[in-house]
Design brief:
The complex is a heterodimer.
Chain A (H helix, E strand, L loop, with lengths): L11 H17 L14 E6 L5 H12 L3 E6 L11 H10 L4 E6 L4 H7 L6 E7 L5 H16 L12 E5 L6 H12 L3 E5 L15 E3 L2 H6 L4 E4 L15 H8 L3 H6 L5 E3 L12 H4 L6 H20 L8
Parallel strand pairs in A: 1-2, 1-3, 3-4, 5-6, 5-8, 6-7, 8-9
Helix pairs in contact in A: 1-5, 1-11, 2-11, 5-6, 5-11
Chain B lengths: L1 E6 L1 H18 L6 E5 L3 H16 L6 E3 L31 E9 L3 H11 L6 E9 L11 E5 L7 E5 L1 H4 L3 E6 L4
Parallel strand pairs in B: 2-3, 2-4, 4-5, 5-6
Antiparallel strand pairs in B: 1-8, 7-8
Helix pairs in contact in B: 1-2
Classes of the chains: A alpha/beta, B alpha/beta.
């Protein structure tokens, strides 16, 4: 593995390896000294063209826990706002000697462009590109599910037979796409639920079931219910009449939440909009894994950084 | 190329029994003793030593494991290797006598990494080192306190330690070109 661009590229063995290494990284957070010397001579650059708190700070903490030097580079307040191209930005970072570049960009495929170009020789980590993929989020979701199900005996296991329902703005969600590929690779059974306007075209070819009816899907008692945020910033048309209409059909309301089985997990990648896609009591309940997801995100990103840049760099083919 | 057996299964058991007695003797008993194996085969040896200690003096066989992968100084010179789990016993290592256990002592770099790793888990009162085979060729000023067998080797030779729990057989073999 040289870059992490998409969960579609991960086979089951590689995905489980990442999750297992993350288990070891999670143990570091419980120690007296929460730091490893592993990436002491490496430089990681956070290249964020889009707003982010969770992902950026999570990568930052992960790099620092591994003793790497980290530079935050956000489009606001950089030469990008003066009109610099991705190519020039990348070459500048290459000249500074970056070992890994974590990139978030509003255009789908931006990370791929960087990885396939000869502008920069660093490992490229996709931290979200448009509506395409967000692989570390899917990995941390899979890790969270595995940990809740198997606890200390998680190592080496996949998610065979686990039923996952992903609800909400599938159309604009890179989290949903990354999760679909990763969770099905790991053997989980995924159902996507959304209003017809928020399901992408061509979904028949995805390895999932799709439904418009949240209540019918919840009646099948899924192991995991993952709520997605309505991405108003990517919506240039009216996809539903109004937010109340949406909430009535597709939000995890108090009433729907009360119907869930006792051990159902409620997940949300954040940021949550309470009252729109998820009720406050659902978000704060013991079924909710929201804060575990944040904590596990650091472990997953440590694992990915370790696996990508600690070893000998093989010659580029 | 030749391969010859230098330790038979019974030799390994005898060496571990002697090491266990030596550990208890040098520690003046089994108080505050923590045995930490270094993955992969050091963990198996630590478990065996723990069982023997338990047989000699009940309550002394506190065993764990200490992975040193993240502390190695050669990570950038070889393909990425996945780490192994570290299990520190519930009582921690502060103020304890920690005995590190590994199968072969060679350059000493693994033990250097282990000492660094240990420092991030706490402050032991003392750290000792037990190895099944000491083959020489140290690159760092490190020496073992308890040795199963001293085995003078050439750098061209390979020592393979096989343990039942991992390899299905017990034995230590040496193979490679013999210097005439």
């Amino acid at each position: 593995m040289r870059h992490l661009l998409s969960t579609k590229d991960l086979d089951r063995a590689t995905a489980i390896e990442i999750l297992d290494v993350a288990e070891d990284m999670a143990d570091v957070a419980t120690r007296e000294v929460k730091k490893l010397p592993t990436l002491r001579n490496k430089t990681v650059i956070n290249l964020f063209f889009e707003d982010s708190t969770r992902t950026r700070t999570s990568f930052e903490l992960a790099a620092k826990r591994l003793s790497a030097d980290l530079i935050n580079f956000s489009a606001k307040g950089s030469s990008v706002s003066k009109g610099e191209s991705l190519k020039d930005t990348a070459q500048t970072l290459a000249a500074m000697g970056a070992d890994a570049v974590v990139i978030r960009h509003s255009s789908s495929g931006a990370a791929q462009v960087l990885a396939e170009s000869d502008w920069i020789d660093a490992a490229i980590l996709n931290a979200g590109d448009g509506t395409h993929e967000h692989p570390t989020q899917a990995l941390l979701d899979a890790f969270t599910i595995r940990k809740r199900l198997h606890g200390g005996a998680s190592r080496g296991r996949d998610l065979t037979g686990v039923t996952v329902t992903i609800v909400g703005d599938i159309l604009h969600s890179r989290v949903a796409r990354s999760n679909v590929w990763l969770l099905t690779t790991l053997g989980a059974l995924v159902t996507l639920v959304a209003p017809a306007t928020l399901l992408p075209a061509g979904i028949e070819s995805w390895p999932v079931k799709a439904s418009y009816d949240l209540d019918a899907t919840l009646a099948e008692a899924p192991d995991v219910v993952m709520m997605l945020r309505i991405q108003a910033e990517r919506m240039n048309a009216a996809f539903f009449p109004n937010t109340r209409e949406y909430s009535r059909g597709w939000a995890l309301t108090d009433e729907r939440f009360a119907r869930l089985d006792a051990d159902t997990m409620v997940m949300h990648p954040g940021p949550m909009i309470r009252g729109l896609e998820i009720s406050a009591s659902a978000a704060d309940s013991s079924k909710s894994t929201v804060l575990e997801q944040v904590a596990n995100g650091v472990s997953i990103r440590m694992a990915v950084l370790y696996l990508l840049i600690s070893g000998e760099r093989k010659a580029v083919l | 190329m030749t391969a010859r057996t230098v330790l038979q299964p019974a030799d390994i058991t005898r060496a571990l029994t002697r090491i266990s007695h030596e550990i208890l003797e040098s520690n003046h008993g089994g108080a505050d003793l923590v045995i930490l194996g270094i993955p992969t085969r050091g963990v198996v040896l630590a478990d065996r030593i723990g069982a023997i200690l338990e047989g000699i003096e009940a309550g002394t066989g506190t065993v764990g494991s200490l992975d040193v992968t993240m502390y190695r100084d050669d990570l950038g010179h070889q393909p990425t290797r996945p780490p192994a789990p570290t299990q520190i016993p519930a009582g921690g290592i502060d103020g304890k006598t920690v005995v590190l256990v590994d199968d072969v002592l060679y350059s000493g770099r693994t033990i250097r990494a282990a000492l660094d790793a240990l420092g991030d888990y706490g402050r032991p009162r003392a750290v000792r080192l037990a190895v099944l085979v000491d083959r020489g060729h140290r690159q760092l000023p490190i020496r073992a306190d308890f040795v199963g067998k001293n085995l003078p080797t050439s750098v061209h030779e390979r020592i393979s330690v096989r343990l039942d729990e991992i390899d299905g057989v017990n034995g230590v073999e040496i193979d490679g070109v013999e210097i005439e």
